[in-house]
Amino acid sequence: xxxxxxxxxxLFLFPQVTLGQDSLTWKPTVDLTLTLAQNAYSDNWxxxxxxxxxxxxxxxxxxxxxxxxxxxxxxxLRLAYGQTHSQDAETKDWRxxxxxxxxxxxxxxLRYLNWKTLPPYAALRLITQFEDASVSAHKLYFxxxxxxxxxxxxxxxxxxxxxxxxxxxxVGLRQKIARGYAEDFTRKKTETTNDGGLEWVxxxxxxxxxxxxxWKTKLTAFKAFFYSKAKELKTAPNAxxxxxxxxxxxxxxxxxxxxxxxxxxxxxxxxxxxxDLGGRFKETxxxxxxxxxx
Length: 294
Description:
Layout: H1 2-13, H2 16-19, E1 26-39, E2 52-66, E3 71-86, E4 98-112, E5 120-128, E6 131-132, E7 140-141, E8 145-160, E9 163-181, E10 188-207, E11 213-227, E12 246-258, E13 261-271, E14 280-292
Antiparallel strand pairs: 1-2, 1-14, 2-3, 3-4, 4-5, 5-8, 6-7, 8-9, 9-10, 10-11, 11-12, 12-13, 13-14
C-alpha cells in the first residue's frame, strides 16, 4: 500500500512541471547518461579471450519548488540499469546477458524555512531495483523495497549559487519488504521487517571553480533503537547486530569533457553489520554520452 501511494504521488508530481498553472515556480532537472564498453576477438585469437559488451543507462531526475509560504519541496529520482553480454571462451557463442547495475532510488524532502536556525523537515525515501534475479527462472520486479520515513530539523551549512551542503537529523522509521517464493515455487511469500531510531543525512554538491568538474556526496547514518525481529534473534550469535549504526556514503565525481561526453567516478561505502561484519565498497568509472535536457 505504501509503495502504491509513492508511485501514484510521483506520477502526479512530475506532470505539474508542464501542466501546472504555476509551473515557473518548479525547478526541474533531467540528466541522462549512457555508457558502453565493447571488445571483440577473431575466431583464431590465441589466449582464450572472449568478446563482451557492457552497457549502463543512468537517469538523475530532480524537481524542486519554493512555495510562497516558505515551504521548500525537493524531490530526487535516481535510476540505473545495465547488462553485460559475453561470449563463451571455447565456443564463441554469446551467453545470456546478466545484470550488472540495477537501482531505483527516490527521495522526497519537505522543509519549513520560516524557522531560520533549524528548519523542520519531513522526508520519505524508497530504494529498490527493477528486477530481482536471485532465481533466474522466477524473477521478481521491484524487490526488495526499503522505505524510510523521517522527520526532524535541518541546517544549511553552506550555500553559494548551485553549491551547497545541507545536513539534517531526526527520528526515522524503516520498513523492508522482501518478496520471495516457497521452496517448491508454487506460491509467493512476503516478509516485512520494521525498525526505528535516529537518522542523520548530509547532502553536498560542489563545482570546482573554473572547471567542468562537479562533486556530489551523500552520507547517511541510521542508529536503530527497536527492531521487529529482536525477540526472534534473542539467542542467536548476531542478536545485537541490528543495534549497530548503518552507514551509506555515496560520492560522484563527474567531468563534462565535451558537449555530450562525460567522465564519471562513483564511490560507495556501505556498512550494515547484519549483512556483513566489514564495510562493503563499490567503485565505478564510466565514460559515455550525457544529455542535460533541463
